[in-house]
Amino acid sequence: MKSLLSFVTQGVAGLLFPDLNRCALCRAQLKPDAVEGICRSCLETLTRPLAGTCQVCARSSARGRSKICSDCERNPPHFRRCVAAGKYEGGLRQAIHRFKYQFERRLAGPLGYLLAVTARAQFSPDYLAVAVPLYKSRQRMRGYNHSEILAWEFTRRLGWDAGLDVLNRIKDTGSQAKLDNQERRENVLEAFLVTDPSKVTGRKVLLLDDVITTGSTLSECARVLKLAGAREVDALVLASTDRRS
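^ thats the sequence. predicted structure below, dont judge the formating
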């Protein structure tokens, strides 16, 4: 019955809104086994498990028997650990890029779903979910904060507490794409402020973002959250990269 209802619902939606009857990624006609507007084939590319990644930062740079990468050994981040749903490549990279820079709002659902599925397997439900904020002028220019939208999609699926206004970015750090690890750490130093410490005091906080590259931004967010009284800070991202300075 559920499959029939799903099929009928998709059929009606397809008549009224033709694009909704196609995969948000590959545009193929959706079948009843589609999830969150993503066909089964694309969903499998989004949920490929990570292997051999650092247990602290989730980047693919752990070597040999070591479970911690050399970057985390030299400069331990302020978060306890970061978990990534996948690698920043293929279909997942495409989905993040289209959502983040082209604001294909339809992708917020499947990406939020992917975060939720990952969190269920890795974290307990007593976390306060906090999105990494954008600087106010950048958010006005873009018109939205993609991390905040992902956090909303994430928390509404899991029913977790949402602290969408807990962090504020008080310094415009600009683009960090061409900066090395050390330059990134210096660039984001004191760039964030906890707006109301009472909301995080004694709480376990889960930072949410789209991609971890060097971990500098997440680490700085974790630092100020812990200074404000957070008991523990972890991070959850859609994808991880393997970047070394």
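The chain has a mean pLDDT of 83.
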